[in-house]
Amino acid sequence: MNSLASAFEAFVAPHLRRLTALARQYARTPEDAVDLVQETFLRAWRDFSPAHEAAYRRAWLVVILRNVATDWSRAERRRLRVTPLDDAELTEALPADLSEPFAPLPAMGEERFREFLDDRLAAALDSLPPAFREVIVLSVAGELNYREIAEVLDCPVGTVMSRMGRARRALREQLADYARPSSGTEARRNSGGTERCGGSS
Amino acid sequence: MTCFEVREYLFAFLDGELDAPLSIELQRHLEHCPECAREAEIERSIRRQLGAALHPHDAAAPQVALARVMAQIRSSQSRARRSVWRRFPMGVRLLGLAAAVLVIALGSWFASRDAHGPEPSQQLADLLVADFEHFLEAGKSLQLNSSDPREASAWLLERTQVAATLPAMRRDRCKLVGARSCKVSGRPAACAFYEIEGQPASLVAMNGSDADLRAMQAVTANGRTHWVDRCRGHTVVACVADGIVRAAVGRMSEQELLSLLDMAHEG
């Protein structure tokens, strides 16, 4: 029995870093994120069998983590960020033409652009519709490819590709919006009104 | 490929999701179109920054979470074993108890025939892993916080009288975090803690000999022998030189831990 636990531990340990990164994006507090990872491992343990270890894919633990987050969210036990919109809402959320020019960002030096992203990227990501935010988070924090994301979201790979394109464009539009000092969004988000693009105030 | 098509496929291209012919076409376009190349560079910067923002820097917190889960799993396994045992009638349980006593008695007799059995080194690997787990759970209970191998070596020598000769790091991804002195099997031991690509690892040095490592698996390569054991998801790699046992413990590969040991051996 103990060797089974050891086999399980050896199986999950390499995934710990990205699962934690992902949990921090689903949860709203670091404590909830730790609980989410722990519950994910406990559920994974129930189904784990070393004989089937080769069949477990990288996405398997992420599917479980997302199910736990969805369950907790439904039960309103925790405030989690898993409320995907349906496809119709997504289609309306942004322009459909993926070949249109990207939202322009004002020219700024490399250093200044990095500061701007440091300052604004998290807020821009959080402002996206949840389903857009989620594909980016699964790709970056979860380190999953499109096929694995499709497995987690239970949708075709083509849907992931299109959603990812829209999500990245939406992120870019939000950043461009923040970069315009006079934009309504900028004014709304900086209710204090003193922060400037570039973050050096 | 046109600029319109590049915009349509750029995100999939940067995610490595385009098939080879399309990917080559897009790459060629970027080489000749400064405007699209600039857009690609902006997207790459956003990705880099996103990657840094979405990955936590504290490597110890998730390790502690896993340690807690494993403790819970192991404890529930013990409870499950006990409850399965209670399902049997009293007669069967007594018979089982008698059989267990017989097995233990026979085992002890066989063990006593070989006074130098494998138990001490098995215990040594267990102790090293337990000490390492304690270090992870206690949130890095170090007595010396230092990234300077010379300072830490001198500090450990003074405390333990063991010449740990901590290696000077030749790789950026491997760094010394700190050190503490402890006792392993009643012997003073010098413990140093490292982060290898963000993953914690420990290097322990204590006076000893091959006999301490007999139960571990011996591996001989390039005329040198090292010993390996795995315990509770951790790997222990050890070697002996000049009357000092050096052991590296962590969740990384045997090769990673061995190279840490080699650096320590070379001083």
Low-confidence stretches of chain B: 112-122
Number of strands of chain A: 0
- Stretches of chain A where pLDDT is under 50 for at least 5 consecutive residues are 184-201
Largest sheet of chain B: 8 strands, antiparallel
- Largest beta-sheet details of chain A: none
| Greatest chain-chain contact | A-B, 53 and 43 residues
Quickly count the helices of chain B: 8
Percentage of helical residues of chain A? Answer: 55-70%
Task: Kindly summarize this structure in a few lines.
The complex is a heterodimer of chains A (201) and B (267). With 201 residues, chain A is an all-alpha fold.
How would you characterize the overall build of this protein?
The complex is a heterodimer of chains A (201) and B (267). Chain A has 201 residues and is mainly alpha-helical. Chain A is built from ten helices and no strands. Chain A is 64% helix and 0% strand. Chain A is elongated. Residues 112-122 of chain B have low confidence and may be disordered. Chain B has eight helices and eight strands; from the N terminus they run ααααααβαβββββββα. Chain B is 53% helix and 22% strand. Chain B has 267 residues and is an alpha+beta fold. Chain B is extended and about 80 Å long. The chains are: A mainly alpha (201), B alpha+beta (267). Chains A and B meet through helix 1, helix 2, helix 3, helix 6 and helix 7 of A and helix 1, helix 3 and helix 4 of B.
Features:
heterodimer, A: 201 residues, mainly alpha, 10 helices, 0% strand, disordered C terminus, B: 267 residues, alpha+beta, 8-stranded antiparallel sheet, 8 helices
